[in-house]
């Protein structure tokens, strides 16, 4: 499989309001950005079509946010500890998407498309008896989240889309060219080797191979690759079979969008208040991310400077202030 095709899978995964800000590094934060929320539960819940979804719950409170991770195929382990400040005063639910982490591994493409991911969000909501939830989607998860909001408008309180994957297929080439330009030839070669080892089940330690793969893949997604060290969780704290399935899960999920996908018509039907966040150094094109805000009626758009695809690791003050304030607002006009 071509490296270009693989690259497209990892981040996947009305005009902006006049007051939508561009957030600079060093913005003062009225809210704590290092809150260590207590983990209040974990276990399995029934997803759509009989799959089992592994989940973790942090914090407590009547307001509930569900976090949808990237990939598809990345586990909640790169998010739950690092996004703990979102659980300051609310309940936050993380879960491994189908085919990933500790959830049911799948090898039937008919069960692994984006519509099945949307159905799983509804299964999470029903399992926990949530009336209206907020959604925080990252990358691929920020593509699933608005699709859920479009299909279940009565169930969504508000929606935060963090560095969403490309909104249209033609942005893929721009993204891939930028990613390659930021990656050394040696790293590109090693990435291909590791993908092959995992997909072929040839690695003696798949979780370690997965960790190595993503540790040399994601530097291209950062403003400063040194900020990867801020990660509290793990890219690949997963069982060996899930590490081996990473490539397949990503390929099949991405393919479900179609070769010439265009999410704009769906975005125009979203009714919930929405915040779209772009990291200024994200290799995914600025215009792709801005298009999400342009097409969703009344959406807010913000750019976090000196940050890339994982802004909470590079500019936590700016990120958590923006997201917490948006999730807590009672005056979001729509």
Please identify, by name, the CATH architecture: 3-Layer(aba) Sandwich
Structural class: alpha/beta
Provide the succession of SSEs.
Answer: HEEEEEHEHEHHHHHEHEHH
Number of strands: 9
DSSP summary: helix tally: 11
The CATH class name reads Alpha Beta
Averaged pLDDT, please? 89
Which superfamily, in CATH terms, is the homologous superfamily?
Alpha/Beta hydrolase fold, catalytic domain
Q: What's the CATH topology name?
A: Rossmann fold
- Detail the poorly predicted runs: 1-32
The main sheet comes to: 9 strands, mixed
**Spatial extent as radius of gyration:** 18 Å
How large is the share of residues in beta strands? Answer: 15-25%
The number of domains:
1
What is the general shape? Answer: globular
| Terminal CA distance | 44 Å
The helix content is 25-40%
**Major sheet: arrangement of strands:** 1-9-8-7-6-4-5-3-2
Secondary structure blueprint with pairings:
Blueprint: H1 3-7, E1 22-23, E2 39-46, E3 52-58, E4 64-68, E5 91-95, H2 114-127, E6 133-138, H3 141-151, E7 156-162, H4 171-181, H5 185-199, H6 206-217, H7 240-255, H8 264-267, E8 274-279, H9 286-295, E9 300-304, H10 311-314, H11 316-328
Parallel strand pairs: 1-9, 4-5, 4-6, 6-7, 7-8, 8-9
Antiparallel strand pairs: 2-3, 3-5
Describe the structure.
- The longest helix has 16 residues, at 240-255.
- Helix content is 34%, strand content 15%.
- The protein is globular, with a radius of gyration of 18 Å.
- The protein has helices spanning 3-7, 114-127, 141-151, 171-181, 185-199, 206-217, 240-255, 264-267, 286-295, 311-314, 316-328; strands spanning 22-23, 39-46, 52-58, 64-68, 91-95, 133-138, 156-162, 274-279, 300-304.
- It has one domain: Alpha/Beta hydrolase fold, catalytic domain (Rossmann fold).
- The chain contains 11 helices and 9 strands.
- The chain has a 9-stranded mixed beta sheet with strand order 1-9-8-7-6-4-5-3-2, sandwiched between helices.
- The chain has 334 residues and is of the alpha/beta class.
